[in-house]
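Q: I have 383 residues here and want to know how they pack in 3D. Can you give me a structure?
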Amino acid sequence: MNEISIPTRQRPPLVILACLSVLLIVSLVFGQWPDYAQLTATLDQPLSRLRWIVGDISEVAFYKHELPALGLLLGACLAHWAGLRGYRWQGFAICYGTGLWPWVFTSSLLGLLLSHVLWGWTLAGGGWQPTFVAFVSLPAAMVLLFGGGWQVTITGALLGALLVTPASLLLVNYLCIPLQLPVVIGNVGGMAVASVVAFLLCKRFPSWVQQGKRPAGLQPVTRQPDYGVVWTLRRVLADFSEAPFFGNELASLGLLLGLLLACVIAPAAPAYGSQLVVQMVAGQALASLVGVLVWRRQWQARGWYPTYIPIVSIVPAAVLMHGGDWQVVVTSAVLGALVAPPLAVAISGRLPSYMHGYIGNVLSMAFSTLAIVPLVGLIGGAA
């Protein structure tokens, strides 16, 4: 694993810690959690709308609940803090060891909040809408590609709210729903199309992002992983937080512990009230495990490989559409692990240098989901 040494005097911005503290306090004070149907029926109420917005942070994993969202953020904050001090138990260095996690989180959160300001009216009917997409797409990708600082952070947040969210809204409502396609195709399709447009704009107007900065004084410390059993299990866990660009075991652990607590408190609240959380998580873990094992040589050669893709697309989409039978869980996990990662790498390798490679990942999610989820239904129906 590649780790970095970061001066211990650095601290996560106080605004991040304040946001986490406020979210946790609100969650604890208002501890009577509604189920998903109650939440969507009361979105005109401030507390329900706040819960929806916070739940957007864990939506990319299909959990949609404030407790896994809070767990994800608290785990990520702990991982960043541990990384500043060089503790080995930090796990895989968050945000790929760039030291940019505070800026990634800030840009993503601003993009999410701006999206709700601009597009929150689409929730007026009480139906689901992809309001979460800006949190796990362009804002973070721009920070990782161009560096930190307020100019890049705000530019990414603005473009995420102005381009990504409406693109996904259009694809979901005017393509996926009429054609009865998994809505994840519209979610990630909107991310891809809008991000291409955004990076073309940044190339045309480089002053928008030319002042990006990276933490000074970072010295890579190379520690060759053995890619053994422990590394494999750590990698599977880290894949659960890869979609928001965290890729860290502590962040993933917080996400999953928050999901467990949400299921205990209100079983019909997370995962859209489907009560398929166990099957979903089992399929997600199996997909990552199969991917990490099958593509181990790629991990060794490249240092990183997108084995997380089925976790946030194919597997949960198949489970929600076709049910939680073991045939659905296993088939979607295995096919997703075999097909989606190499497709993503093939697409990303053909992108120009001024575009972040995550575009290939989300396009792979769209194409793989479109091909595999119907096939899973056929196999599950014939079994």
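Q: Anything worth noting?
A: The first strand starts at residue 2 and ends at 5. Residues 1-99+224-275 form one domain.
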